[in-house]
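ENTRY TYPE: protein
CONTENTS: sequence, structure tokens:
***
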Amino acid sequence: MKLGLIGKGILKSQAPDLHCRLGKLVGQVSSYDLFDGNETGFRGLEGSLGFMREAGYQGTNITFPFKEAALSLADTIGESARKIGATNTLILGESIQAENTDYTGFMSAYRFRFGQTTPGEVLLIGGGGVGRAVAVGLVDLGAKAIYLAETDVERGRKLVEELKGFGVQASLLDTNAINSTIPKVQGVVNCSPVGHVNHPGCPIDVSLLQPQQWVFDAVYVPANTEFLQGARKAGCKLLSGVDLFVFQGLDAFKFFTASLNLTNSLDREAKSLHSYYMEKLFNTI
């Protein structure tokens, strides 16, 4: 089974290892190739998808910055992708089917870490592809309110209106209001690229975090971001990009192998797979 990933700055991605490992666990030999927009010879999003289809790829993951644009290239849009307005998973064949496992994977990761505890009021930094998925996931998990910080004001306003349509209190923050908002919320979430190996730094002033809060950082390269390090020192409950990486990858692989009826077998591997990547990428479980 031939799979891939289309994005920018993805050469250090663990996705090839994850999907090939999943394939071995269920007896489905898989290959997984990277199509990096920062590299010479990149065909573009549409060109890469055309190449994949001609070469017989069964599916591809989509990451920053193509998650929203990729949706327009799909022939069929699944409920998860329709709800989010972005896709991270395309199933390839005679037609292209779009799904969003950032959404389902985030909810699974949240419940894995925090059980049935509701998110409360949440500060969300970044409203792009993964930010949209996490925002809607927060709504479905029972968030009381979402305060969005997004540098693209038009994108931010659009997401806020969509969240209100789902029945949750939502507002777009001026970036100057981030610091004053942090002490007032129960959760602080980073879905911006800040902290990634290609975008070093920290999205907030971690000295403002409080021990009763929970935090999530969507970045997983590196796994132990400055944001998570600061949150750990503050005594916060942690949800990491590695958590999301594992659960969204597991859900994507289920779509790629849907015709093989492997869902139950894959679910049985979830806990051990999660432990493996936490140890590998964090050097601690």
Q: What stands out?
A: DSSP finds eleven helices and twelve strands in the chain.
